[in-house]
Amino acid sequence: MKDSSVAQRTVFFISDRTGITAETLGLSLISQFEGIPFIHVTLPFVDSAEKARETTQRINQAYQQDGAQPLVFATIVDPEIRSLLEKCDGFYIDFFKTFIPGLENELKMASANVMGRIHGVGDSNVYNTRIEAVNYALNYDDGARTNGYDTADVILVGVSRCGKTPTSLYLAMQFGIRAANYPITEEDLHSTQLPKALRPYQHKLFGLTIDPKRLHAIRSSRRPNSQYAQLAQCENEVKTVEAMFHQENIPYLSSTNLSIEELATKLMVISGIERRLR
Amino acid sequence: MKDSSVAQRTVFFISDRTGITAETLGLSLISQFEGIPFIHVTLPFVDSAEKARETTQRINQAYQQDGAQPLVFATIVDPEIRSLLEKCDGFYIDFFKTFIPGLENELKMASANVMGRIHGVGDSNVYNTRIEAVNYALNYDDGARTNGYDTADVILVGVSRCGKTPTSLYLAMQFGIRAANYPITEEDLHSTQLPKALRPYQHKLFGLTIDPKRLHAIRSSRRPNSQYAQLAQCENEVKTVEAMFHQENIPYLSSTNLSIEELATKLMVISGIERRLR
């Protein structure tokens, strides 16, 4: 046992495939426990008895080193591989084993027991929808093109560096939504009227705004001491663009305290835009 | 009850935040049950008693319409909101409620019971790492720049349309990895030597390849009947680029049967590149 009052805990995320499901729920769960120094280890593609034995050894070693039982979050489909892993010295939770029997009972059907169902390739239409949405977001990033908004699901608008590009890309990657984005620049801000290129698409617009101080910090790290990064400049741009959103009846969110996931999912709730991917 | 032999089932993914965790595990679980027509409904930001009651009504209506009990996968932190939802007529599973008590016991600590821990903004360093990685992937997409590879974690190489761009963006968004990508074009394929711009970075290169028939289909939908899309052209490019990978000792994967998630996570395992985000 280490000297510190709270022992370090190694947390393993183990899967026969990508590990994304085990990580997503596992991280959500441990985020509810504060003050414990968690060490994360993701081990994907544990898809053979040999790899299961290696993994078990690694877990047992972590127990020795930490002096505290590692947490193990797993999504393992194959019962043989799972039974090997369950013998480890960790606090082992398998998300599939926990829920599959109850679902089999409720659905009156045996589960397929097949690995890689969810983050696999699956339907090639789904794959194409996703790639096309990513290409769309790239082609219509930062106002690069404005002819082609007819096929946009949403056009994000806001001042430079408020988070439009990552939000567009996330909408494309995660949900297959075609998201263009258009920067409201200084020349657009002489009035609170919409820029000409956007006027026919008012119903597709969604605004992003940001706290001027945060914008000032982001721009300053990009272009230190520029006019563009001045706090007064940021305040003025944000104030005008928010007035534009109000006047033109454009729904908007602030990126200041929201992650990209939160921005994207809130935007979908507010605008009613449906995902194209599942 | 509908006439069809297997009743439609509505599946709800419910959360007080983005719903991403509930969706990720819920989709993994139902992917193991084949032949049931599942209808997906994601309801994020169910964060008040009123929204919980509305949600419960919606679940009960789905029961009426389907004639089969809806599945409800939830991640709800607040006990009051959860107790309202639990009264619904669905087959209700709360992923937090299932595991938090066991973890509290193991960790000898009460959980924080705070919403939005995982897909929230959290540490602004994490946020900045992610945004910088996305910007890096965009700036170094498709060989757009080659001066700046010093700060790349990985440089993806492969023929045009083999999946480099979405993989780079996914690595950035999900893991904060700085991934450049460089297309091996016809003029690079007169020999199996590495293009000049890549030679100093051999240790950072990771290859992507693809089945020539699939490449032919992808290119054909983009530029029908072009020389670029011809099957013979695709076969030749793929053959030469794979010879280059072998000769230059570049690890590689085929994107033909792997999703973007699988490509990204396998690449990390093979190359040993560590995530910068958590």
UniProtKB/TrEMBL annotation, chains A, B:
Entry keyword Nucleotide-binding: yes
InterPro entries given in the database record: Kinase-pyrophosphorylase (IPR005177), PSRP (IPR026530)
Annotated keywords: Kinase, Nucleotide-binding, Serine/threonine-protein kinase, Transferase
Transmembrane segments: none
Catalytic activity: [pyruvate, water dikinase]-phosphate + phosphate + H(+) = [pyruvate, water dikinase] + diphosphate; [pyruvate, water dikinase] + ADP = [pyruvate, water dikinase]-phosphate + AMP + H(+)
GO molecular function, a single term: protein serine/threonine kinase activity
Residue ranges the record marks as coiled coil: none
Tagged with keyword DNA-binding: no
This enzyme's EC code(s): 2.7.11.33, 2.7.4.28
Top-level taxonomic group: Bacteria
Residues holding ADP: 158-165
Family: Belongs to the pyruvate, phosphate/water dikinase regulatory protein family. PSRP subfamily.
Stated role: Bifunctional serine/threonine kinase and phosphorylase involved in the regulation of the phosphoenolpyruvate synthase (PEPS) by catalyzing its phosphorylation/dephosphorylation.
NCBIfam families documented for this protein: PRK05339.1
Listed name of the protein: Putative phosphoenolpyruvate synthase regulatory protein
UniProt source species: Candidatus Berkiella aquae
